[in-house]
Amino acid sequence: MSTSASTSTTAHDGPAEVAPTLDGPVPKTLGFLDQGAFWANLGVSLLGFAGVLAVLQPAGAPPLTVTAAVVATVVGTLIGSAMVGLSAMPGAATGAPAMVLLRGLFGGVLSWLPSVLNVVQLVGWGTFELVVIAQAGTLALGGPTWAWVLGAGVVTTLLTLRPLGMLRLLRRVVTILVAISVAYLTWWLFSRPELDLAAGGGSWEGFWAGTDAAIAVAVSWIPVASDFSRHSRRVSTAFTAATVGYGITQIVCFVVGLAALALVAGDGDAVFAPMLAAPLGLVALLVLTARETDQSFANVYSTAISVQNLAPRADRRVLCLVIGVLVTVLALGVTIDDYAVFLAVIGSVFVPLLGVGVGDALVRRGAAPDLSRWAPSRPLMVVAWVVGLAVYQLVNPGGAPGWSDAWTALRDAIGFAPPSWLSASLLSFVVAAVVAAALATLERRDRTDATSG
């Protein structure tokens, strides 16, 4: 491994910014307020206002009532944000970014597999963020969509060049403006006499599918949490800031989105119209649109850090420039309609990944992981990950063309009909953790026998 995980600086010494490569020192400058503001801002998303449709109308399941969607949002967010908090702790403890930590779980070479998958999902997230920024900006001020996409792409890329400076800016200025804007929009939407949250029908049948969608939004941050928490002064602070900061604001964001959708009869493309109808709605929406770049910033920055697990000496700044251009180009051709399908695949990949990490940690507690670049491969952990992914897809195959069809066909072939109360996220997490713990125990026993022999 590069020396980044072992040469972290103290809170008062060393550089104030992230080094260009993984060989550089790791500043430990972030306290609770810095991290809490960062995660709270990530929980408030323009994408969440419209994306709550994935909870209200989960892929492959019947639509929910608004009450069921609210409960699914709360339950899913609490579970998902706790998972994010857990995934932030190893980075704070070791100073290593997320994908480098996977060297200890899968081995140096095998960690490239989740790294590549993480790059793919982060590019997708970054793309969707630019799409929703353009959608909101066009609705608020007009102008061509492509111009908003290009402008957001340029700002996003520039922010990645000084990531810790971006986090300090969020704490000092942006968070206060966002809190005021969200509070105002919440008051406005819920005070509308025409708001009828009971309209639209639905049922509770697809509750856990909706919960999985809420979990998936949160757990998409699992494979990037340590990219930021590695700069935390304390491990406990990294967990609390991520769990509380993100959890509260995602719940608020989704509930506001449900109210806005109720006012436009569930039309996701018109979700911002009720907000603009408020006397100060334009100002509030512009604040949220400008702040949305912290979402795209986090995705582009962590994409570069993930690539560095493959090429540790690659310059992060150059990588950010290339990735920023890529997501901007992609955003010119993607629509928000692809979002729900995207979420279903993300959850199936990264929820069991965390389960594998937890199961392995329980068996190897106290043992320092090997985070070197060429750490020995641990294929049994990959097996546990694949098992967890398969369990998720069999319970909730989602709606991705081809991919979901194949899992549905397999489910039918083996005669598996999951009950409506079964959560794909929870089951896959538990199964992956149990299988990983069993295989890690077997792995340790084989190693002990080999040593004694």
TrEMBL record:
It is a multi-pass membrane protein. Residues 1-20 are annotated as: Disordered. Keywords: Membrane, Transmembrane, Transmembrane helix. It is found in: Membrane. It holds the Pfam family Transp_cyt_pur. Its main location: membrane. Residues 1-11 have a biased composition (Low complexity). GO terms for cellular component: plasma membrane. GO terms for molecular function: cytosine transmembrane transporter activity. The chain crosses the membrane at residues 38-56, 68-88, 100-125, 145-161, 173-190, 206-226, 238-265, 271-290, 318-336, 342-363, 375-395, 421-442. Belongs to the purine-cytosine permease (2.A.39) family. This is Putative hydroxymethylpyrimidine transporter CytX. It comes from Actinomycetospora succinea.
